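Worked example 3 (structure in, sequence out).
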């Protein structure tokens, strides 16, 4: 498979570095000098600068101070460090908010925020855009030839929504375009005759509000789509000026970590406008979940970020070298976990390990957030040593840069589907858990070290053997046909309860669920039973099934009451009035087939189900071995080489028997045969020629 090459032509190696805020230390130049010494010791080669520097760059309207940034850029270059330069739009200066209140965001209750925090400006405000354009232009003009500049970091973690008058107008314009200036079309799409909601003039439309409209799901959905559209429009506005002045400097914006937080923005819409995808990774190690479970969640998000640009390596723009200041409990990473988590990012396709933050600030809310350099100011700390070790490992991975993976399996995780599921009232208000459900299906493969792409329903399915679409509640136009084609051509579909329910407008499909998936699954879902948290039903596996499964499994939360319309029944419910009805089916369709899992289940079922499927379809693993529990393997390749990352997410020492395979240890460059010992939380990166 092809090599994508490095992120920037100015730098061939893996990037290792941190968000750096020199503007906080301008009064203590000795600290800035010390940073240079420490960056070398930490084996860092990159800094991300300027995310929140606006008031240090434009101290008053039209009064600029670039001196400190000039010096920083020069100093970095002189010392062999690259700079990722941010546009400062993520946080505005106080003077601006006071002079131009329209730049402040209005929340859904229609109250305008006071100045405070960050990430809280109006994306529509012409004044904000004008100010952003001005500062971006000055930055781009000033540093366009600077040898240290390798990349633009546009703003910071775009998020949130604004309900001001300007945004309301923009929303209405967006709706007019979408509905061809035809209010009747909108009234139909939103099902407005319900509760007498018919609009008779465009001016009557308002964004959703806690004291206003919650009931029109079509409106809610379109508002969310508009928020993505408007945020992207703002991003594109920032992007344009940078591309005009520096067409050859690649550009990114850092996506949020936890999908719960970022669920307001559909990153698939952003991806085409980024040269490289980047994201901020803040795992919860040693917490309520086992480390292994947490690692599989991280793998899932890494894989989304890699899939966003069709497999192109991404950047882990932020991670904490120790704890955060915002997770409920700031548990320290146990020894070894820092390297493990960092290498996990590389294993899934990142070409960088970057941190928030280089140096702990002295004051304000992030003063206790983990950093490479602590308040003590020197290198003799556990964290510093672990960071420097990661830098050392990365320096040996230059050949991995630009390589990727071509999984045979894709799991669909789709933002619009998420919004629609979240909004649905029934069959349960709570515990619909779309994200968790997709992640659990993903884990079925992760546990076997089978590589997976995580895509949305608009992606090309044809390159996969298996398409997993858990809770595909919304099926957008054309998707049903594309899924049918995929299966007809030999693909295997796995879908579940609560799929094929609504169309693009959140209108229910008529003629029987799962709507456009009815033919391919060969079933009809007549009703769905929602169970209370403690209710348990069971399913009994039929003896002859193509997955070599047997016995009984629990069924909880959702039990779909389905009829086979041609599908083979692989399991039935054990009790209740739907005892004996199908709970798991397989429908042969063209050269392929579709599984329908009608009930929510525990990990045990998914684990056995996917083991059976992997065996039946002979799915490729990252490494062709049965790995001990707790050990995960990921693979990256190009035409010539294969790199395998073995990661032990358990505390126990484990041994991997390599059978007759021969590899090179990428840290020591020694040949390895026989077996590999992996300490608790240990890693090993091995390679071989293809
Ligand atoms: C986000 C931000 C950073 C920092 C970290 C703290 O990811 O982008 O500026 O606040 O959170 O974890
Ligand atoms: Zn606004």
């Amino acid at each position: 498979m092809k090599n994508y090459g490095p992120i920037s032509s100015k730098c061939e190696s893996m990037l290792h570095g941190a968000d750096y805020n020199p503007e906080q230390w301008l009064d203590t130049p000795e600290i800035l000098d010390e940073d240079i010494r420490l960056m070398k010791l930490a084996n860092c080669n990159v800094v991300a600068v300027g995310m929140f520097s606006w008031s240090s760059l434009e101290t008053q309207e039209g009064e600029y101070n670039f001196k400190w940034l000039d010096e920083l850029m020069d100093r970095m270059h002189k010392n062999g460090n690259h700079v990722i330069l941010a546009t400062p739009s993520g946080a505005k200066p106080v003077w601006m908010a006071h002079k131009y209140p329209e730049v402040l965001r209005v929340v859904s209750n229609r109250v305008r925020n006071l100045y405070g925090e960050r990430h809280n400006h109006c994306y529509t405000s012409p004044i904000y855009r004008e100010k952003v354009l001005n500062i971006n232009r000055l930055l781009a003009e000033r540093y366009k030839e600077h040898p240290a500049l390798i990349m633009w970091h546009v703003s910071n973690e775009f998020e949130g929504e604004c309900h001001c008058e300007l945004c309301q107008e923009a929303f209405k314009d967006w709706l007019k375009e979408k509905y061809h200036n035809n209010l009747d079309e909108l009234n139909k799409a939103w099902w407005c005759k319900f509760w007498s909601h018919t609009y008779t003039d465009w001016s009557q439309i308002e964004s959703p509000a806690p004291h206003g409209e919650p009931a029109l799901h079509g409106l809610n959905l379109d508002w969310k789509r508009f928020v993505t559209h408007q945020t992207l429009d703002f991003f594109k506005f920032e992007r344009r000026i940078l591309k005009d002045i520096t067409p050859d400097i690649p550009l990114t914006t850092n996506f949020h970590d936890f999908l719960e937080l970022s669920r307001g923005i559909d990153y698939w819409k952003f991806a085409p406008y980024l040269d490289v995808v980047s994201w901020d990774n803040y795992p919860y190690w040693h917490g309520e979940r086992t480390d292994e479970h947490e690692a599989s969640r991280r793998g899932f998000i890494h894989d989304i970020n890699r899939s966003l640009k069709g497999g192109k390596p991404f950047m882990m723009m932020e991670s904490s070298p120790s704890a955060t200041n915002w997770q409920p409990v700031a548990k320290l990473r146990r020894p070894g976990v820092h390297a493990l988590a960092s290498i996990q990012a590389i294993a899934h396709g990142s070409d960088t390990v970057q941190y928030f933050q280089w140096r702990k600030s002295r004051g304000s809310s992030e003063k206790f957030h983990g950093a490479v350099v602590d308040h003590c100011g020197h290198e003799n700390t556990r964290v510093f040593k672990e960071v420097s070790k990661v830098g050392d490992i990365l320096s040996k991975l230059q050949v991995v840069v630009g390589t990727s993976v071509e999984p045979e399996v894709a799991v669909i995780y789709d933002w619009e589907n998420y919004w629609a599921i979240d909004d649905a009232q029934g069959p349960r208000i709570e515990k619909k858990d779309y994200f968790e459900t997709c992640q659990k299906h993903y884990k079925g493969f992760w546990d076997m070290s089978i590589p997976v792409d995580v895509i949305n329903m608009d992606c090309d399915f044809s390159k996969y053997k298996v398409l997993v679409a858990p809770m595909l509640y919304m099926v957008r136009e054309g998707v049903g046909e594309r899924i049918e084609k995929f299966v007809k051509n030999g693909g295997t579909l796995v879908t579940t309860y609560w799929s094929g329910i609504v169309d693009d407008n959140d209108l229910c499909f008529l003629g029987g669920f799962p709507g456009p998936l009815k033919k391919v699954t060969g079933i009809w879902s007549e009703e769905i039973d929602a169970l209370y948290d403690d209710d348990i039903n069971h399913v009994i596996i039929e003896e002859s099934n193509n997955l070599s499964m047997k016995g009984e499994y629990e069924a909880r939360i959702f039990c779909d009451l389905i009829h086979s319309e041609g599908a083979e029944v692989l399991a039935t419910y054990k009790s209740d009035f739907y005892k004996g009805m199908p709970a798991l089916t397989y429908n042969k369709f063209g050269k392929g087939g579709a599984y329908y899992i009608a009930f929510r289940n525990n990990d045990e079922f998914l684990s056995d189900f996917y083991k059976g499927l992997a065996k039946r379809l002979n799915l490729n693993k990252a490494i062709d071995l049965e790995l001990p529990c707790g050990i995960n393997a990921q693979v990256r390749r190009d035409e010539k080489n294969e790199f395998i990352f073995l990661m032990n997410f358990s505390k126990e020492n484990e041994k991997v028997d390599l059978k007759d395979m021969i590899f090179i240890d990428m840290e020591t460059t020694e040949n390895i045969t026989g077996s590999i010992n992996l300490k608790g939380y240990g890693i090993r990166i091995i390679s071989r020629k293809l």
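Notes: The CA atoms of residues 433 and 469 lie 14 Å apart. The chain has three domains: 15-161+227-397, 409-617, 631-689.
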